[in-house]
Backbone:
């Protein structure tokens, strides 16, 4: 996720501004041993790599020695670690983020088809909630949905991308998040813990995607010359505005679900659409409002 939202920070400056990135995962585990100095050689300054390695070891020690009970110490180490980690990512690597999300989805699908199927039932029953087949399937589909969201952001920034392309990407988002929601909502683990919060996250993203789909469908329809086209377009814009308002409520519901999290900053295509949808809905309803009134009569 850092590839999608981070900005490059020059090493050596005392004050660094790193764009905030909020990532929701089902559950954190102790990081595995990794030779960061070898992996990041030539990618980041030696002092930064050494600091990362030190913080990673600190996180591992605190988590293992206390079983994760030392929340404040663990939070402090994690926040500093993530700030450093996102700070060394180059600016505007959204295409890399899409590739990584597609790979993540593929790896999860492989785990479901080729690994979990070989586990004996008694072992499967002892797996943690976030390792259950339905949860992994949900995460796989969710990765596709969020990858498509970033692709839509790239299309919005591209002058070559047509409205039809943007509408198609938004509709694909709706399909992915709808499938993810259906997959997780039928799972037993969703009645408690982080799985319930993940369900609210997916529902929030589903509403955002649906608002985007209605908006771009409205723009495509509004290109027509017939009055009926403008009426249909206005209905789409008004529906998009209503869905956008619902998505904001869903975002708050997600944040308040335990464990409580802060509201993530608006970024990417939704930062653009959160301004455009209400503006276009108001303008078009003012322009073609008389057509709506005539049709209602």
Residues:
């Amino acid at each position: 996720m850092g590839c999608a939202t981070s900005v490059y920070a020059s090493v050596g400056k005392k004050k660094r501004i790193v764009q905030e990135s909020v990532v929701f995962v089902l559950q954190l585990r102790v990081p595995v041993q990794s030779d960061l100095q070898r992996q990041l050689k030539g990618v980041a300054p030696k002092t930064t790599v050494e600091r990362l390695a030190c913080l990673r070891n600190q996180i591992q020690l605190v988590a293992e020695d206390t079983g994760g009970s030392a929340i404040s110490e663990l939070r402090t180490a994690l926040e500093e670690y993530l700030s450093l980690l996102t700070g060394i990512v180059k600016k505007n690597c959204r295409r890399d983020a899409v590739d990584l999300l597609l790979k993540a989805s593929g790896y999860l699908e492989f785990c479901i088809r080729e690994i979990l199927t070989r586990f004996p039932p008694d072992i499967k029953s002892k797996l943690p909630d976030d390792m259950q087949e339905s949860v992994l399937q949900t995460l796989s589909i969710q990765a596709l949905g969020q990858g498509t969201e970033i692709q839509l952001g790239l299309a919005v920034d591209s002058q070559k991308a047509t409205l039809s392309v943007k509408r198609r990407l938004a509709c694909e988002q709706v399909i992915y998040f709808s499938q993810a929601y259906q997959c997780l909502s039928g799972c037993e683990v969703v009645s408690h813990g982080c799985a319930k919060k993940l369900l609210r996250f997916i529902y929030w993203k589903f509403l955002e995607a649906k608002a985007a789909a209605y908006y771009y469908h409205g723009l495509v329809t509004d290109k027509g010359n017939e009055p009926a086209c403008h009426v249909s377009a206005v209905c789409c814009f008004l529906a998009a505005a209503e869905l956008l308002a619902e998505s904001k409520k869903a975002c708050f519901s997600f944040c308040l679900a335990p464990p409580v999290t802060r509201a993530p900053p608006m970024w990417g295509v939704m930062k653009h659409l959160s301004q455009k949808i209400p503006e276009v809905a108001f303008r078009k309803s003012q322009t073609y409002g008389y057509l709506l009134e005539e049709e209602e009569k």
About this structure: Residues 227-256 form the longest helix (30 residues). The mean pLDDT is 82. Residues 2-87 form one domain. The chain has two domains: 2-87, 94-296.
